[in-house]
Amino acid sequence: MNWLVRLAISGAVLASAIPATAETHELKLTPGNVHWGYYDARIKPVLRIASGDTVRIETLTASGVARLIEAGASEEEIPNNLREVENAITERGPGAHPLTGPIYVEGAEPGDLLEVRILGFEFLHPFGRVSFSAGGGTLPDAFPYAGIRLVRFDPATGTAEFSPGVVLRLAPFFGSIGVAPARRRISSSPPGPHTGNLDNKELIAGSTLYLPVHVPGALLSMGDGHALQGDGEVAGSALETSLRGTVEIFLRKGKRLLWPRAETPTHFIAMGLHPDLDEAARLATLEMINFLVTEKGMSRDEAYMLCSLAVDLRVTQLVDGTKGIHAMLPKSIFQ
Hints:
Elements: E1 3-6, H1 11-17, E2 24-27, E3 34-36, E4 38-39, E5 47-49, E6 54-58, H2 65-71, H3 80-88, E7 98-105, E8 113-123, E9 127-132, E10 147-154, E11 159-163, E12 166-169, E13 173-179, E14 186-187, E15 195-196, E16 208-212, E17 218-226, E18 243-252, E19 261-263, E20 267-274, H4 277-296, H5 300-310, E21 312-317, E22 323-330
Parallel strand pairs: 2-6, 5-7
Antiparallel strand pairs: 1-8, 3-7, 4-14, 6-18, 7-17, 8-16, 8-18, 9-10, 10-11, 11-12, 13-15, 13-17, 16-19, 19-20, 20-22, 21-22
Helix pairs in contact: 4-5
């Protein structure tokens, strides 16, 4: 059974943006479609698409089925394809994320940009786990032991009861959407210029992520499904689950970016990624200034001052080694 979460988007808007020859592809959760814990330009693509195509992509929860069982899920309620992937893939790491892909985008070259429009999500099972590791998260000294909990949710109402009287609103997204780096294998855990494990809770249905391309074909992979997450991801995990996501992928030739950007229906988003949180904030601010100069025609002085008046800096995540800051600029200020 599939549990569906969708965002209604105007068919006229989508139709105007999709090439007449665009295709829809199904990328199933099978052992042959998954690489576990890394991004690598040497991985053979599992799907080739054209710009404008739509992909329905299935992903396995971070750390796999074993962690769901440890949290309290029964073997019987784990879908068979999840168990098949778990049992078949033995080459893992150094990161914890099973990633579906890579997808080869025809014509993509270094210096281009991928535009990934996130249309909707479906849950592959109606539960997830939240946990912290011993000495991990944002408070390693305060929690020198491990904790884990299974949280069941109701996609029909879009809610999860964390504990009696504590009800949370579901907001699913992929924690990791990335392309292959120019250098060889890197861990799936820290984000970077390849984008990867942003853990940015703004990237729900209706948002768009822009990723710089580093190798021919881009080699796009996705995973690390989250049912919901707070900014910071302070304990070290979101509500980790398995998702099917529907995305449209467009190639933007010659639209060079150094770092990923995003937008939602209400905000433009610039991102800064660095092991030092102050430096991540500096990079996010610089990226927003660059956006305002190149896309809105402002001078650098105007852009810097506008950032001080209208941009909110938010802590994306603190727990992946490379920390994240995302700068949020409301679209409503532009008349």
